[in-house]
Design a protein that fits this description.
The protein has 391 residues and is an alpha/beta fold. It has 15 helices and twelve strands. Strands 1-2-3-4-5-6-7-8-9-10-11-12 form a twelve-stranded parallel beta sheet. The longest helix is centred in the first third of the chain and has 15 residues.
Length: 391
């Protein structure tokens, strides 16, 4: 076509327009739909609405609700981001949950919710729990049953204590669930181990479960060993202050599970509220720990040494938020030498340059992939994975 010639973009085939639109975010997509009638018709194509991100940061974002009413029947993968500080954002997000729950023959299989901003003082988030319970529950009498049930639910970004009522509604009505993350960093976990046991017993295809230590039990581990279910692939357990009020996961329960599922991957984490004297007791040798997170902000070189001994055949990733010492650096080198599968090392304290060089010598692939945080000088946070000073 000669330079300066007029281009009639409306002549583009509709499938080409839809493909181009699929690369746009919701804001740009909305603007593009106003160019002409042809582009506006492409805007309504079901393919463009299978994955959608709802962001509630401003009062004007209430307009998303009309989009949900019109196109929610096409949505399969839904993300909801909320600035929780402002009342209108929380109200709009809860209204969205109600709209989604009333969609005839909905197709949603993926749901993720994330809060941003500071948690308002004395805010309980009860309306979110109510909205999730309705969304997870059986549809109303005047609503046709879903075409698909939820398979992936990530509530780790929801700054609200998730209770048994919400999880029970999910497990009762979405038995095809494959992934659940309820490690949502609230001060208190209200999800009991009995509720998680019901979840595991109902959801026979559950493959990835991420929760707090107080929400798991020996009975939950035993339920995963049943032969008439899909093998669980990954269990993530974070230990906090509640471990001192619970009971210990027995070695026998772990042995039965790992014998039944040798390929099981376990992530084991400890935060700064976990009683220090309980960490080594929880780190049982029978647990196939692939990722270990010691985010204690306290001296933990003994635990790093223990990890090098117990998990030398399984450990792939080690995360440390601690204080530096010569003992810690010696423990890090022990991990680097003994854990042959180690692929990622994230250390949030400074270590000596010679220690870093030796780790890279032992694991050059880690340096090549950039899957590390290793600093020899203090820098402003956040520290970036794989970026060294001078890069």
């Amino acid at each position: 076509m000669a330079a300066g010639s007029n281009v009639d973009w409306t002549l583009l085939p509709s499938d080409v327009i839809v493909h181009v639109f699929s690369f746009l975010n919701s804001h740009d997509l909305n603007h593009a739909s106003r160019v002409c009638n042809t582009w506006n018709e492409a805007f309504d194509h079901p393919t463009l609405w299978q994955t959608f991100e709802f962001w509630f940061f401003l009062p004007s974002h209430v307009s998303y609700l009309e989009g949900a009413k019109k196109y929610g029947k096409y949505m399969k993968k839904v993300f909801i981001g909320v600035n929780q500080m402002l009342t209108h954002n929380r109200q709009n997000a809860c209204a969205l949950l109600e709209i989604l729950s009333r969609i005839d023959r909905r197709r949603i299989t993926y749901l993720k919710i994330a809060f941003t901003g500071e948690n308002p003082l004395f805010y309980s988030g009860q309306e979110f729990l109510d909205g999730l319970s309705i969304l997870f529950s059986k549809v109303a009498d005047n609503v046709e049953a879903p075409i698909a049930t939820l398979q992936y639910v990530d509530l780790s970004g929801l700054s609200v204590p998730i209770d048994d009522r919400v999880i029970d509604a999910l497990s009762e009505n979405h038995t095809g669930l494959k992934y659940l993350d309820i490690q949502n960093k609230v001060i208190i976990s209200k999800t009991t181990s009995d509720c998680i046991l019901r979840l595991v017993e109902r959801c026979r295809d559950l493959r990835d479960l991420r929760l707090y230590y107080c929400s798991i039990s020996n009975e939950v581990l035993e339920a995963f060993t049943e032969h008439d279910r899909t093998d669980v692939e990954h269990i993530s357990i974070v230990c906090r202050r509640e471990v001192k009020f619970g009971y210990e996961l027995e070695t026998e329960a772990w042995e039965d599970l790992t014998t039944r599922i040798p390929s099981l991957r376990v992530t084991l984490g400890f935060d700064h509220t976990c009683p220090y004297q309980l960490i080594s007791a929880i780190m049982k040798p029978v647990i196939p720990v692939r990722t270990l997170k010691l985010e204690t902000f306290a001296i933990c070189h003994d635990e790093v040494n223990l990890a090098a001994t117990l998990y030398n055949k399984t450990l792939e990733k080690l995360v440390l938020q601690t204080r530096n010492s010569l003992e810690l650096e010696a423990a890090l080198l022990k991990v680097a030498r003994t854990c042959t599968l180690l692929r990622s090392l994230l250390v949030y304290c400074v270590v000596r340059r010679e220690t870093i060089n030796e780790i890279f010598r032992l694991h050059p692939d880690m340096e090549e992939r950039g899957t590390y945080i290793l600093k020899s000088e203090v820098e402003p946070e956040p520290w970036v994975v794989g970026v060294e000073e001078g890069d």
